[in-house]
């Protein structure tokens, strides 16, 4: 019920589209733990799903939890000199919060909370980053005029995304989302706020995180990350390339930063050129080579490694998303 009817086509526990969950419930029916009459219905569902699994594969079990917050709102409110200006800011924030649930639904997500400049939402892995970009643009649009009138900086929006397994405890995932939001805020960085913080939490293995500054310019760090994700999703960059980057960083550990950066660029160029000489693989475009080398020039090597590991993980899972 509700949510503009987006769940009408699937009015049951969506975990049943996963073979392991469905088989467990069928076994529980057969053992008497659950209503035995339900078992026949579940077996019919399994029969219906088998050709779908075969043709489309099992749905990816990872999703994104988003936690986002407007930046420097206290500074904006502090510039308001009258009750009317305060009301204007409150009105813009209320309109933003009112529109968020509908925008989240457009990206196959569900808004859990939207109040003022705060947003908490669950969203499909395949569209989480697009949604984050949409909301930050909408937030700046909603508050841009009033900020300009008050002589305040243009409002920005920091977004934390954690990619987690559906069977991970929700409380843990929520805490990781807070960590991703703190990462986006970047209080200890040289360029705080106005960023996207991504934390990948695989079911096995340590979490990996990445922070990237928002930007619409083609050379903005955020745009470079999108290109990198696309290159891994399309298998233009092989899965193993991310680990070659990490191995390279480990070899250069302890070197002077400037020397490490220069050597890394040369070695990455060699690795990509070698890949293009391999007749059995898809060639890497000049644009991708340029983007990889520019990133290695602009960022510390540790951040380059994080960018490749996170982009590889997201790219791989995008392949599995419908």
Radius of gyration: 23 Å
Give the overall form: flat
* Distance between the first and last residues' Cα: 24 Å
Task: State the major sheet.
Answer: 6 strands, mixed
Q: Write down the overall mean pLDDT.
A: 93
Percent of residues in helices comes to: 55-70%
- CATH homology superfamily name of the largest domain: Reverse transcriptase/Diguanylate cyclase domain
User: Helices and strands: which structural class?
Assistant: alpha+beta
Residue runs with pLDDT of under 50 for 5 or more positions: none
Structure overview:
The chain folds into three domains: 3-56, no CATH class; 62-214, Reverse transcriptase/Diguanylate cyclase domain (Alpha-Beta Plaits, 2-Layer Sandwich); 241-320, no CATH class. The chain is built from eleven helices and six strands. The chain has helices at residues 19-31, 36-56, 73-78, 83-106, 128-150, 170-185, 221-233, 241-251, 257-277, 286-298, 301-320, and strands at residues 62-70, 109-115, 118-124, 157-165, 195-201, 208-213. Helix 6 (170-185) links the parallel strand 4 and strand 5. Helix 7 packs across helix 11 and helix 9 (257-277) runs antiparallel to helix 10. The radius of gyration is 23 Å and the shape is flat. The model has no long low-confidence stretch (mean pLDDT 93).
């Amino acid at each position: 019920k509700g949510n503009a009817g987006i769940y009408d086509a699937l009015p049951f526990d969506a975990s049943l589209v996963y073979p392991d969950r469905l088989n467990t419930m069928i076994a529980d029916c057969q053992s008497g733990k659950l209503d035995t009459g339900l078992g026949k219905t579940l077996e019919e569902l399994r029969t219906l799903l088998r050709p779908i699994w075969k043709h489309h594969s099992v749905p990816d079990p990872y999703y994104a939890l988003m936690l986002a917050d407007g930046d420097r709102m206290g500074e904006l409110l502090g510039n308001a000199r009258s009750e009317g200006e305060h009301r204007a800011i409150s009105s813009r924030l209320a309109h933003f919060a009112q529109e968020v649930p509908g925008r989240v639904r457009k990206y196959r997500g569900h808004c859990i909370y939207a109040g003022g400049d705060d947003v908490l939402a669950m969203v499909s892995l395949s569209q989480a980053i697009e949604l984050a970009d949409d909301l930050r643009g909408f937030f700046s649009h909603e508050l841009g005029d009033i900020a300009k009138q008050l002589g305040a900086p243009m409002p920005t929006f920091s977004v934390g995304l954690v990619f987690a397994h559906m069977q991970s405890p929700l409380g843990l995932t929520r805490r990781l989302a807070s960590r991703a939001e703190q990462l986006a805020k970047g209080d200890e960085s040289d360029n705080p706020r106005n960023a996207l913080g991504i934390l990948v939490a695989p079911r096995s293995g340590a979490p990996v995180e990445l922070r990237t500054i928002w930007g619409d310019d083609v050379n903005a760090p955020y745009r470079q990350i999108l290109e990198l994700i696309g290159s891994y999703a399309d298998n233009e960059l092989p899965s193993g390339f991310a680990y070659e980057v990490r191995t390279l960083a480990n070899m250069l550990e302890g070197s002077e930063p400037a020397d490490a950066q220069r050597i890394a660029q040369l070695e990455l160029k060699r690795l990509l050129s070698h890949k293009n000489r391999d007749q059995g693989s898809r060639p890497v475009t000049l644009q991708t080579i340029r983007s990889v080398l520019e990133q290695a020039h602009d960022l510390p090597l540790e951040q380059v490694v994080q960018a490749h590991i996170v982009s590889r993980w997201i790219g791989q899972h995008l392949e599995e998303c419908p």
